[in-house]
Amino acid sequence: MIYLGVDGGGTKTAFVLINDAGDVLARHEAATSYYLSVGMDAARSVVLNGIGEICHRAGITPADISFTFLGLPAYGEVSADVERLDAIAQSLLNRERYRCDNDMICGWAASLGCRDGINVVSGTGSIAYGEYQGRSARCGGWGELFSDEGSAYWIGCQALNLFSRMADGRLQKDLFYDLMREKYPCRNDLDICDLVFNQWKGDRGKIASLAPIACEAAVAGDKQSRAIFFLAAKELALMVDTLRETLRWHADESVRVSYSGGVFKCGDVILEAFAYELAKLNGNYHICLPEYHPTLGAAIYAAKLNGTPLSGQALGKLSLGEYNGQ
């Protein structure tokens, strides 16, 4: 059997084909499928072209795919759009052999191997999703305008605020200011407004791309930049703790927690703060390293939805290290 996983995101869409033996048959990356940003037609084109391309790479046709899971950003957040999103791949795939849902499930399935626990995603946006004893729930992920706390976009906005305060003297200039001037040389500090508003047009992905600069400054000792990551960690931990209560774990029961998304690539500057904030809320959280790549999570979940979950041996072959090393 062959399973296709599609992991949509705010900046890119990743496709992976696996078989029931745990072999990765093909991979492909394309532009974002965040339809609220690029439009439904563009998102549909990304999905359909991506399916066609990955099948070509694997030497199969869409009809050869046993089941597909498509994790789409913002799925379920606009009720009127769900029916159209559910139909997004029907011109290539049998409607009975694929399922669409929010891309948060890809991170959960990958990080926790489809087992009970909570996964928090901090990429371009942020969201937390958990399952426990057949119950499921999400927290956060209400969009970048008034939510997505702790995400790369949110960190980017905080970083721009930090730059403005350093530039006009409300805060003492530190490494982050220097890194921004080095990365985006301009005649005047106020030209950052031209960059963000006119050149970038407030683009979500471009603002999110400032997070690694803030991370670099934080790691090098910039206290104001580091404070941004502490606040991000506090917001992400609150999402997890809210889900623990929503899904009705007992207060003294151990809860497996994992994570995914580009912000966590900042390493200890976010992970140590996240662990600290979780421990303050409840002492029974057990933070687990992600077991698989998020895209593999989509394919693993496809096998589960098909009623043919992968064997332990197959899952063993789909280790995070093997996937990244191919």
Topology, pairings included?
Elements: E1 2-7, E2 12-19, E3 24-31, H1 35-38, H2 40-58, E4 67-72, H3 82-86, E5 98-102, H4 104-112, E6 117-122, E7 126-132, E8 135-139, H5 152-168, H6 175-183, H7 191-199, H8 204-208, H9 211-219, H10 223-246, E9 255-260, H11 268-281, E10 285-287, H12 294-305, H13 312-317, H14 320-325
Parallel strand pairs: 1-4, 4-5, 6-9, 9-10
Antiparallel strand pairs: 1-2, 2-3, 6-7, 7-8
Helix pairs in contact: 4-12, 5-10, 6-9, 9-10, 10-11
CATH homology superfamily of the largest domain:
ATPase, nucleotide binding domain
* Count of DSSP H/I helices: 14
How many strands?
Answer: 10
Radius of gyration: 20 Å
Keywords:
326 residues; alpha/beta; Nucleotidyltransferase, domain 5; five-stranded mixed beta sheet; 14 helices; globular
